[in-house]
Amino acid sequence: MTSKDRQRELERARYERVQARLAQQQAAAKKRNKITAAVAAVAVIGIGVGVAFATSSGNKTDKTASASPTSSPSDTSSAPTTPAPTSSSPEQIGYQKTGSASKDVGVPTYNAADAAKPYTATIQFNSGDVTFDALTTKAPYTTYSFKYLSGKGYFDNTPCHRLVTQGIYVLQCGDPTGKGDGGPGYQFQDENLTGATYPAGTIAMANGGPGTNGSQFFIVYKDSPLPPSYTPWGKVTVGMDVINKIAAVGETDSGQNPGDGSPKQPVTIKSVTIK
Question: How many CB atoms are closer than 10 A to CB 46?
């Protein structure tokens, strides 16, 4: 090989080394760009999730729909709420004593066989009767508690303290004091929440957070967008016209949540009959 050929060989080898180095640099640059893009995407997703949580946290059930969700719908979203319990633990099953009772009728002793029996209840309002089927197989503790309280006259001659005519469309009852912060002196766990929806005619529990059901409940008179946080336990079969007439008269706006206040037409539960 001549010196000239040797020189050409060396130049070609150097050129190939330079090209190989450039290729490596370009590959590294592309990898860095991908990582940067991925990090940026994660950041954007994180911001989105933060916004979602911030938005949803502002929609938690708040005020008592006449009691804080413990038994009534109310709050920022005007969801049903009832008085905050002394303590609450969603993991606890059964009736747990808490606070003082608005009307002391004791605490029920759960009987699974009796709780499973279907029943129909009629609420005699001062403006007419409303009859519903209790969902005993889906919400046995809830329906058993209602039957117990009804049998003790707990709901007799008690006012319904809350009517919401915007957003969630509910009439809330179940606090003997009529203030929306009363309960039976015990609380129990949520039930039947998986996939729960609240079409017109639904009867559900108001509460002050998970596992704080008491005596306050609400009747939905128009399909409601409430989140699945309130135990649905009954379905009105007769008397929706009674509730619709009450809603048509409107509420005495509390000023805190538009369309949320006490019914303009006084609503009283005269008695409850279980069959």
Answer: 10
Q: Supply the pTM of this predicted model.
A: 0.72
| CATH class of the region 96-274 | mainly beta
Least Cα distance to 273 among 79, 66, 131 occurs for 131
Domain boundaries, the chain: 1-57, 96-274
Mean pLDDT for each 10-residue chunk of the chain (275 residues)? 58 55 54 36 29 26 35 50 53 90 97 97 98 98 98 98 96 96 97 98 97 98 98 98 97 84 96 97
Q: Reduced to 3 states, what is the DSSP secondary structure of residue 102?
A: coil
Q: How far apart, in whole angstroms, are the C-alpha atoms of residue 106 and residue 120?
A: 23
